[in-house]
Amino acid sequence: MNPVTFNCTVLRDGHQSLAATRMKTADMLPIAPILDSMGFSALETWGGATIDAGLRFLKEWPFDRLDALKKAAPKTVSYTHLRAHETRRHLVCRLLLE
Questions:
Q1: pTM of the entire structure?
Q2: Is the distance from CB of 48 to CB of 13 less than 8 angstroms?
Q3: 21 with 50: CB under 8 angstroms?
Q4: At 81, is the pLDDT very low, low, confident or very high (cuts 50, 70, 90)?
Q5: What Rg, from alpha-carbon coordinates, does the chain have?
Q6: Is 93's pLDDT higher than 50?
Q7: Are 76 and 43 contacting, i.e. CB atoms less than 8 angstroms apart?
Q8: At 27, which helix (H) or strand (E)?
Q9: What is the pLDDT of residues 2-61, one digit of tens each?
Q10: What is the biggest distance separating any 2 CA atoms in the chain, rounded to whole angstroms?
């Protein structure tokens, strides 16, 4: 039997549900190493509102968030919550750049 594993959604859904995705990256970075050490299968760090909220409300380049969180939590997989309608030009451009 395969072991049960858990993904942590606090870096995406936690503030998306409670604060309309208005948490700045700098506010997430202090907790990222702690979450990294807890043994989660993945940290969900990105969702549908991340690009829009980052650019429009937070004045942050949303892809810098992914880089910063991965640097702060290098051991745990970064997980992205995407739906088909979100794969538009910003995301496609980023994937082409990678």
A1: 0.76
A2: no
A3: yes
A4: low
A5: 14
A6: no
A7: yes
A8: helix 25-28
A9: 989 998 988 887 776 666 678 889 999 999 999 999 999 999 888 777 787 888 888 999
A10: 46
